[in-house]
Specification:
Elements (H helix, E strand, L loop, with lengths): L8 H10 L4 E5 H14 L7 E5 L6 H8 L4 E4 L2 H10 L3 H5 L12 E4 L5 H10 L2 E4 L4 H9 L6 E5 L6 E3 L2 E4 L10 H13 L4 E5 L11 H20 L2 E6 L17 H15 L9 E4 L3 H4 L3 E12 L3 E5 L8 H5 L5 E3 L9 E6 L8 E8 L7 E4 L20 E5 L5 E5 L4 H5 L8 H8 L2
Parallel strand pairs: 1-18, 2-3, 2-11, 3-4, 4-5, 5-6, 6-9, 9-10, 10-11, 13-15
Antiparallel strand pairs: 1-12, 7-8, 12-13, 12-17, 14-17, 15-16, 18-19
Length: 442
């Protein structure tokens, strides 16, 4: 089986004349269509909001597309807070009624862990919803913002043990560093109430990249039961349940994709079964999807530059793990299309490799592909999330450009490629700063 690239060979060659390979490129139409589907799937819940996980694709041009659907942003660092601040419309646009209800800060969910004080300071200044990862952070936060806390806050829950569904073990939250125990969560709510918090959120992330329509409904059911208990025992208002991320995509071409409408309907059934009878029908449903929102709508385009014939057959490309870490880090599968040879038989077996001085710098191992010749364009699928964003500079390899394929077929540069001057810029003010820049121009 195969996947379909959103670029033809001719279009990719046209792009490469202006932006040399490697480059990451995103499909604007695919992103918009998917965002629209997510919004429709949860339209039954008036308070629903997707908080796009900025860590997946931290680019303001991509984030601006999320603004069109009144999504928010899930942030976990200072840089991500700055990006959200830059992209969101001004407070006055919310206050004058020209945009949907709720304040600007409510579009930012700050879900961090081991958080520096300066990041809590910025989140509080922006009016973000602060989602506490640990009960000890209550005292830490009080030292930063004082005893009067925001009226709306959230806490992250970790049930421990293993997270199982009908198809078996999905993940092991008990080994995760994130979140609080049930007892800690309830104590945190009590203490937050004493600090003036009036509206509470419950957040949990229990499994990664699930390719099943049942994950969100099963998770929702457990969190809804927890919310009912908190409401009864503590007399608090549960304003929202945040299902976080975890809804995945089929990286392999033979896997069945998730149906976001079936997922939304499954959550609705649990909502009506658990929350409605308790008079909690005003509880909003939030999500923080990154992979599902973006991964299928991005690709890394690289060119075959070398071939090697020893104990195995190797194709060397001009991208490397610095451009896409997932295969090297996790052994993750990313489908590969040789542009222009989509219909050719996959009768060659290659390792497709990059130039890092690391033997795990491989995009594919023993992959059946059409015959690849030097100069061929290689399209690596599903890099729209956790692709460029996980890039790094080992061996001094530079980050690529990011491009956006517009709905009208034009291409927009949304981040230029890194240069050697960028790479050496942090030596400014040292004896080597000017010397390195001089060496670049030799």
């Amino acid at each position: 089986m195969s996947k379909t690239a959103f670029l033809t060979k001719d279009k990719a060659e046209e792009i490469a004349k202006r932006w040399p390979t490697p480059f990451h490129i995103y499909d604007e139409k695919g992103i918009r269509d998917n965002a629209r589907a997510v919004k429709e799937a949860f339209a039954w819940n008036p308070g629903f909001r997707e908080y796009f996980a900025v860590k997946a694709t931290p680019n303001p041009f991509i984030m601006q597309l999320m603004n069109e659907f009144d999504f928010g942003f899930d942030c976990s660092s200072d840089a991500e807070l700055v990006l959200a601040d830059a992209v969101l419309p001004s407070e006055s646009e919310y206050n004058d009624g020209s945009l949907p209800g709720g304040g600007r800060g409510g579009r930012i969910m700050f879900s961090s862990n081991e958080t520096p004080a300066a990041e809590y300071e910025r989140a509080a200044r922006l009016g973000a919803i602060i989602n506490l990862d640990d009960i000890t952070h209550i005292d830490f936060l009080e030292k930063i913002i004082g005893p009067a806390f925001p009226e709306t806050m959230s806490c992250r829950f970790n049930p421990g043990g293993t997270f199982t569904m009908s198809n078996g073990i999905m993940d092991n939250p008990g080994d995760s560093k994130y979140g609080m125990t049930r007892e800690q969560l309830f104590e945190a709510f009590r203490r937050l109430k004493d600090h003036g918090v009036k509206h509470f959120g419950i957040h949990a992330f229990l499994a990664s990249n699930t390719v099943t329509n049942d994950y969100y409904p099963v998770l929702a059911s457990r969190l809804f039961d927890l919310a009912v208990s908190a409401h009864r025992e503590l007399g608090i208002h549960i304003a929202f349940i945040n299902l976080s991320g975890g809804v995945g995509i089929p990286y392999r071409p033979d896997a069945e994709p998730n149906d976001i409408y079936a997922i939304g309907e499954g959550v609705r059934r649990e909502y009506e079964r658990v929350l409605i009878p308790e008079g909690m029908g005003d509880t909003a449903i939030y999500a923080e999807m990154g992979r599902f929102m973006l991964a299928p709508y991005g690709a890394l385009v690289t060119r075959a530059v070398h071939e090697k014939h020893i104990y195995k057959e190797y194709i060397g490309v001009d991208a490397c793990a610095a451009n896409l870490m997932r295969p090297a880090m996790y052994g993750a599968y990313h489908h590969i299309t040789v542009l222009g040879k989509e219909g050719a038989p996959a009768d060659h077996i290659y390792d497709v490799v990059g130039s890092l001085c690391e033997n795990n710098d491989k995009f594919a191992i023993d992959r059946q592909l059409p015959e690849i010749e030097k100069g061929d364009l290689i399209y690596i699928h599903d890099t729209g999330a956790h692709g460029f964003s996980m890039g790094y500079n080992y061996n001094g390899r530079l980050l690529s450009a990011e491009l956006l394929l517009k709905e009208d077929g034009t291409v927009q540069e949304i981040r230029r490629a890194q240069t050697l001057r960028d790479y050496f810029a942090t030596f400014d003010g040292t004896p080597y700063g000017e010397k390195l820049l001089d060496c670049i121009s030799r």
